[in-house]
Protein backbone atom coordinates (compact mmCIF):
# COMPACT_ATOMS: atom_id res chain seq x y z
CA UNK A 1 0.00 0.00 0.00
CA UNK A 2 1.44 3.40 -0.98
CA UNK A 3 1.52 6.45 1.22
CA UNK A 4 -1.23 9.02 1.07
CA UNK A 5 -2.04 12.66 1.61
CA UNK A 6 -5.19 13.11 3.68
CA UNK A 7 -7.07 16.25 4.54
CA UNK A 8 -7.41 16.98 8.24
CA UNK A 9 -11.08 16.04 8.05
CA UNK A 10 -10.27 12.74 6.32
CA UNK A 11 -7.68 11.78 8.92
CA UNK A 12 -10.03 12.85 11.69
CA UNK A 13 -12.77 10.61 10.34
CA UNK A 14 -10.42 7.64 9.97
CA UNK A 15 -8.89 7.90 13.45
CA UNK A 16 -12.25 8.49 15.11
CA UNK A 17 -13.70 5.45 13.35
CA UNK A 18 -10.83 3.34 14.69
CA UNK A 19 -11.30 4.68 18.21
CA UNK A 20 -15.02 3.98 18.17
CA UNK A 21 -14.44 0.46 16.85
CA UNK A 22 -11.91 -0.02 19.64
CA UNK A 23 -14.66 0.52 22.20
CA UNK A 24 -14.26 4.15 23.19
CA UNK A 25 -17.39 6.17 23.83
CA UNK A 26 -18.04 9.01 21.37
CA UNK A 27 -16.86 11.49 24.01
CA UNK A 28 -13.44 9.87 24.37
CA UNK A 29 -13.08 8.89 20.71
CA UNK A 30 -13.53 12.51 19.65
CA UNK A 31 -11.18 13.89 22.32
CA UNK A 32 -8.38 11.42 21.54
CA UNK A 33 -8.78 11.91 17.82
CA UNK A 34 -8.34 15.66 18.20
CA UNK A 35 -4.95 15.37 19.90
CA UNK A 36 -3.67 12.59 17.61
CA UNK A 37 -4.62 14.47 14.45
CA UNK A 38 -3.10 17.63 15.93
CA UNK A 39 0.16 15.74 16.36
CA UNK A 40 0.21 14.70 12.70
CA UNK A 41 -0.96 18.12 11.54
CA UNK A 42 1.95 19.76 13.36
CA UNK A 43 4.52 17.14 12.27
CA UNK A 44 4.91 15.78 15.82
CA UNK A 45 5.15 12.15 14.73
CA UNK A 46 5.88 10.82 18.22
CA UNK A 47 2.37 11.91 19.24
CA UNK A 48 0.52 11.26 15.99
CA UNK A 49 -1.03 8.12 14.50
CA UNK A 50 1.81 6.10 16.02
CA UNK A 51 -0.11 6.45 19.31
CA UNK A 52 -3.35 4.89 18.06
CA UNK A 53 -2.13 1.31 18.47
CA UNK A 54 -1.01 1.96 22.03
CA UNK A 55 -4.41 3.42 22.91
CA UNK A 56 -6.16 0.31 21.60
CA UNK A 57 -3.68 -1.94 23.39
CA UNK A 58 -4.41 -0.14 26.66
CA UNK A 59 -8.16 -0.57 26.11
CA UNK A 60 -7.78 -4.26 25.31
CA UNK A 61 -5.70 -4.82 28.45
CA UNK A 62 -8.49 -3.35 30.56
CA UNK A 63 -6.20 -0.60 31.89
CA UNK A 64 -8.48 2.29 30.93
CA UNK A 65 -12.23 2.82 31.26
CA UNK A 66 -13.33 3.46 27.65
CA UNK A 67 -16.68 5.05 28.52
CA UNK A 68 -15.77 6.91 31.72
CA UNK A 69 -17.69 10.13 32.30
CA UNK A 70 -15.51 12.90 33.75
CA UNK A 71 -16.95 14.42 36.93
CA UNK A 72 -16.21 18.11 37.45
CA UNK A 73 -16.34 19.75 40.85
CA UNK A 74 -15.80 23.44 41.55
CA UNK A 75 -16.19 25.42 44.77
CA UNK A 76 -15.47 29.04 45.67
CA UNK A 77 -11.71 28.49 45.54
CA UNK A 78 -9.34 28.84 42.57
CA UNK A 79 -9.02 25.05 42.24
CA UNK A 80 -11.09 23.09 39.71
CA UNK A 81 -11.14 19.31 39.99
CA UNK A 82 -12.07 16.68 37.45
CA UNK A 83 -12.30 13.02 38.42
CA UNK A 84 -11.48 11.20 35.19
CA UNK A 85 -12.84 7.89 36.51
CA UNK A 86 -10.05 5.86 34.98
CA UNK A 87 -10.64 7.25 31.49
CA UNK A 88 -8.24 9.00 29.17
CA UNK A 89 -7.24 12.48 30.33
CA UNK A 90 -8.23 14.38 27.20
CA UNK A 91 -11.99 14.44 27.77
CA UNK A 92 -11.39 15.28 31.44
CA UNK A 93 -9.28 18.29 30.45
CA UNK A 94 -11.89 19.46 27.96
CA UNK A 95 -14.52 19.28 30.72
CA UNK A 96 -12.47 21.34 33.13
CA UNK A 97 -10.76 23.87 30.85
CA UNK A 98 -13.67 26.35 30.47
CA UNK A 99 -14.13 26.55 34.25
CA UNK A 100 -10.36 26.87 34.74
CA UNK A 101 -10.29 29.82 32.32
CA UNK A 102 -13.24 31.46 34.06
CA UNK A 103 -11.61 31.15 37.49
CA UNK A 104 -8.26 32.42 36.19
CA UNK A 105 -9.96 35.57 34.94
CA UNK A 106 -11.79 35.93 38.28
CA UNK A 107 -8.87 35.30 40.65
CA UNK A 108 -5.89 36.05 38.42
CA UNK A 109 -4.69 32.48 38.67
CA UNK A 110 -6.36 29.09 38.96
CA UNK A 111 -5.51 25.40 38.90
CA UNK A 112 -7.10 22.37 37.28
CA UNK A 113 -6.47 19.04 39.01
CA UNK A 114 -7.25 15.90 37.03
CA UNK A 115 -7.22 12.68 39.03
CA UNK A 116 -7.35 9.01 38.03
CA UNK A 117 -6.69 9.52 34.33
CA UNK A 118 -4.81 7.58 31.69
CA UNK A 119 -2.44 9.85 29.78
CA UNK A 120 -0.56 9.45 26.50
CA UNK A 121 -0.86 12.76 24.66
CA UNK A 122 1.19 15.90 24.14
CA UNK A 123 0.40 18.81 26.46
CA UNK A 124 0.63 21.65 23.96
CA UNK A 125 -2.95 21.22 22.64
CA UNK A 126 -4.17 21.90 26.17
CA UNK A 127 -1.86 24.88 26.56
CA UNK A 128 -2.95 26.37 23.23
CA UNK A 129 -6.60 26.12 24.24
CA UNK A 130 -5.86 28.24 27.30
CA UNK A 131 -3.74 30.81 25.45
CA UNK A 132 -6.74 31.30 23.14
CA UNK A 133 -8.48 32.67 26.26
CA UNK A 134 -5.68 35.23 26.70
CA UNK A 135 -4.14 33.26 29.55
CA UNK A 136 -0.62 32.11 30.28
CA UNK A 137 -0.58 28.48 31.30
CA UNK A 138 1.52 25.57 32.55
CA UNK A 139 0.73 21.87 32.39
CA UNK A 140 2.60 18.91 33.84
CA UNK A 141 2.14 15.26 34.68
CA UNK A 142 4.19 12.27 35.79
CA UNK A 143 4.41 9.12 33.70
CA UNK A 144 5.72 5.68 34.63
CA UNK A 145 9.23 5.05 35.91
CA UNK A 146 11.47 4.99 32.83
CA UNK A 147 14.09 7.66 33.55
CA UNK A 148 17.06 7.37 35.92
CA UNK A 149 17.65 10.37 38.19
CA UNK A 150 20.90 12.20 37.60
CA UNK A 151 23.68 10.05 39.02
CA UNK A 152 21.35 7.07 39.37
CA UNK A 153 21.52 3.69 37.68
CA UNK A 154 17.89 2.59 37.27
CA UNK A 155 14.51 3.94 36.18
CA UNK A 156 12.71 5.89 38.89
CA UNK A 157 11.30 9.10 37.41
CA UNK A 158 8.90 9.39 34.51
CA UNK A 159 9.47 11.27 31.28
CA UNK A 160 7.39 13.88 33.13
CA UNK A 161 6.44 16.38 30.42
CA UNK A 162 6.14 20.09 31.15
CA UNK A 163 4.50 22.68 28.92
CA UNK A 164 4.10 26.45 29.05
CA UNK A 165 2.26 28.95 26.90
CA UNK A 166 2.01 32.74 26.62
CA UNK A 167 -0.78 34.43 24.60
CA UNK A 168 0.05 36.78 21.74
CA UNK A 169 -2.32 39.12 19.95
CA UNK A 170 -2.97 38.10 16.34
CA UNK A 171 -0.01 35.70 16.42
CA UNK A 172 0.62 32.10 17.33
CA UNK A 173 1.27 31.80 21.07
CA UNK A 174 4.67 31.28 22.60
CA UNK A 175 4.54 27.58 23.54
CA UNK A 176 6.99 24.94 24.59
CA UNK A 177 6.29 21.34 25.53
CA UNK A 178 9.02 18.88 26.34
CA UNK A 179 9.74 15.75 28.29
CA UNK A 180 12.15 16.20 31.17
CA UNK A 181 13.99 13.17 29.82
CA UNK A 182 16.52 13.78 27.04
CA UNK A 183 13.84 12.60 24.60
CA UNK A 184 10.27 11.37 24.82
CA UNK A 185 9.92 7.60 25.14
CA UNK A 186 8.05 7.66 21.83
CA UNK A 187 11.20 9.01 20.18
CA UNK A 188 13.19 6.01 21.46
CA UNK A 189 10.54 3.70 20.02
CA UNK A 190 10.69 5.47 16.65
CA UNK A 191 14.48 4.97 16.58
CA UNK A 192 13.92 1.28 17.34
CA UNK A 193 11.38 0.88 14.57
CA UNK A 194 13.70 2.63 12.11
CA UNK A 195 16.63 0.41 13.10
CA UNK A 196 18.72 3.45 14.04
CA UNK A 197 21.12 3.95 16.94
CA UNK A 198 20.39 6.57 19.58
CA UNK A 199 22.57 9.64 20.08
CA UNK A 200 25.10 9.39 22.90
CA UNK A 201 23.84 10.47 26.31
CA UNK A 202 20.23 9.48 25.84
CA UNK A 203 20.03 6.25 27.83
CA UNK A 204 21.57 3.54 29.98
CA UNK A 205 21.03 -0.22 29.82
CA UNK A 206 19.57 -2.37 32.59
CA UNK A 207 23.02 -2.59 34.22
CA UNK A 208 23.38 1.20 34.33
CA UNK A 209 25.88 1.44 31.46
CA UNK A 210 25.54 4.06 28.68
CA UNK A 211 23.94 2.67 25.51
CA UNK A 212 22.94 3.80 22.03
CA UNK A 213 20.88 0.66 21.36
CA UNK A 214 17.14 1.51 21.44
CA UNK A 215 16.24 -2.01 22.61
CA UNK A 216 18.69 -1.79 25.50
CA UNK A 217 17.45 1.71 26.30
CA UNK A 218 13.83 0.60 26.45
CA UNK A 219 14.89 -2.28 28.71
CA UNK A 220 17.01 0.05 30.83
CA UNK A 221 16.35 3.73 31.45
CA UNK A 222 16.43 7.06 29.71
CA UNK A 223 18.37 9.98 31.14
CA UNK A 224 17.08 13.41 32.18
CA UNK A 225 17.93 16.40 30.02
CA UNK A 226 20.53 18.73 31.46
CA UNK A 227 21.77 16.16 33.99
CA UNK A 228 20.95 17.36 37.54
CA UNK A 229 18.86 20.28 36.27
CA UNK A 230 16.42 18.12 34.33
CA UNK A 231 16.39 15.61 37.17
CA UNK A 232 15.37 18.35 39.63
CA UNK A 233 12.58 19.63 37.36
CA UNK A 234 11.31 16.08 36.86
CA UNK A 235 11.26 15.58 40.63
CA UNK A 236 9.32 18.84 41.02
CA UNK A 237 6.69 17.46 38.65
CA UNK A 238 6.45 14.26 40.71
CA UNK A 239 5.84 16.41 43.79
CA UNK A 240 3.35 18.88 42.27
CA UNK A 241 1.43 16.70 39.80
CA UNK A 242 1.43 13.45 41.80
CA UNK A 243 2.16 13.81 45.52
CA UNK A 244 0.46 17.19 45.98
CA UNK A 245 -2.72 16.25 44.13
CA UNK A 246 -2.98 12.85 45.81
CA UNK A 247 -2.28 10.77 42.73
CA UNK A 248 0.29 8.22 41.59
CA UNK A 249 3.99 8.95 41.29
CA UNK A 250 5.82 7.45 38.32
CA UNK A 251 7.11 4.40 40.29
CA UNK A 252 3.58 3.82 41.63
CA UNK A 253 2.11 4.18 38.13
CA UNK A 254 4.52 1.56 36.76
CA UNK A 255 3.72 -0.80 39.64
CA UNK A 256 -0.01 -0.43 38.97
CA UNK A 257 0.38 -0.88 35.22
CA UNK A 258 2.98 -3.65 35.29
CA UNK A 259 4.42 -2.75 31.87
CA UNK A 260 5.74 0.16 29.82
CA UNK A 261 3.87 -1.05 26.73
CA UNK A 262 0.58 0.58 27.75
CA UNK A 263 -0.49 4.13 28.55
CA UNK A 264 0.05 4.94 32.24
CA UNK A 265 -2.57 6.06 34.77
CA UNK A 266 -1.85 8.98 37.13
CA UNK A 267 -2.95 12.61 37.49
CA UNK A 268 -2.29 15.94 35.82
CA UNK A 269 -1.94 19.53 37.00
CA UNK A 270 -2.69 22.59 34.86
CA UNK A 271 -2.14 26.17 36.04
CA UNK A 272 -3.60 29.25 34.32
CA UNK A 273 -2.62 32.91 34.84
CA UNK A 274 -4.27 36.13 33.67
CA UNK A 275 -1.40 38.49 32.72
CA UNK A 276 -3.60 41.57 32.91
CA UNK A 277 -4.64 40.78 36.49
CA UNK A 278 -1.05 40.17 37.60
CA UNK A 279 0.16 43.45 36.08
CA UNK A 280 -2.79 45.47 37.38
CA UNK A 281 -1.70 48.88 38.65
CA UNK A 282 1.68 48.68 36.93
CA UNK A 283 2.73 50.63 33.87
CA UNK A 284 2.72 48.94 30.49
CA UNK A 285 0.74 46.23 28.73
CA UNK A 286 2.22 42.80 29.58
CA UNK A 287 1.41 41.36 26.16
CA UNK A 288 3.05 44.30 24.38
CA UNK A 289 6.10 44.10 26.64
CA UNK A 290 6.38 40.38 25.91
CA UNK A 291 6.47 41.18 22.19
CA UNK A 292 9.49 43.41 22.79
CA UNK A 293 11.27 40.45 24.36
CA UNK A 294 10.30 38.10 21.53
CA UNK A 295 11.43 40.62 18.91
CA UNK A 296 14.78 41.02 20.67
CA UNK A 297 15.24 37.24 20.58
CA UNK A 298 14.34 36.80 16.94
CA UNK A 299 16.35 39.88 16.07
CA UNK A 300 19.44 37.92 17.14
CA UNK A 301 18.46 35.07 14.85
CA UNK A 302 16.96 32.93 17.60
CA UNK A 303 13.94 30.76 16.83
CA UNK A 304 11.00 30.83 19.22
CA UNK A 305 9.84 27.38 20.33
CA UNK A 306 7.05 25.74 18.31
CA UNK A 307 7.75 27.86 15.22
CA UNK A 308 8.50 24.77 13.14
CA UNK A 309 5.34 23.17 14.48
CA UNK A 310 3.24 26.18 13.49
CA UNK A 311 4.84 26.20 10.03
CA UNK A 312 4.00 22.52 9.63
CA UNK A 313 0.44 23.29 10.68
CA UNK A 314 0.04 25.90 7.96
CA UNK A 315 1.39 23.49 5.38
CA UNK A 316 -0.96 20.74 6.52
CA UNK A 317 -3.94 23.08 6.40
CA UNK A 318 -3.04 24.05 2.84
CA UNK A 319 -1.75 20.75 1.44
CA UNK A 320 -3.04 18.00 3.73
CA UNK A 321 -1.24 15.52 5.97
CA UNK A 322 1.22 13.10 4.39
CA UNK A 323 1.27 9.59 5.86
CA UNK A 324 3.78 6.92 4.92
CA UNK A 325 2.75 3.59 3.46
CA UNK A 326 3.53 1.97 6.83
CA UNK A 327 1.32 4.45 8.68
CA UNK A 328 -1.54 3.93 6.24
CA UNK A 329 -1.17 0.15 6.53
CA UNK A 330 -1.33 0.44 10.33
CA UNK A 331 -4.48 2.56 10.24
CA UNK A 332 -6.19 0.29 7.72
CA UNK A 333 -5.33 -2.77 9.81
CA UNK A 334 -6.68 -1.16 12.96
CA UNK A 335 -9.82 -0.02 11.16
CA UNK A 336 -10.40 -3.49 9.77
CA UNK A 337 -9.66 -5.59 12.87
CA UNK A 338 -10.14 -3.23 15.81
CA UNK A 339 -8.88 -4.69 19.10
CA UNK A 340 -8.10 -7.97 17.34
CA UNK A 341 -5.25 -6.14 15.59
CA UNK A 342 -3.36 -5.45 18.82
Automatic annotation (TrEMBL):
Keyword vocabulary terms for this entry: Oxidoreductase
Keyword flag Plastid: no
Residues spanning the membrane: none
Any single Pfam family the record assigns to this protein: Ldh_2
Keyword Oxidoreductase listed: yes
Family matches, as InterPro entries: Mal/L-sulf/L-lact_DH-like_ah, Mal/L-sulf/L-lact_DH-like_NADP, Mal/L-sulfo/L-lacto_DH-like_sf, Malate/L-lactate_DH-like
Family named by the database record: Belongs to the LDH2/MDH2 oxidoreductase family.
Name the record gives this protein: Ldh family oxidoreductase
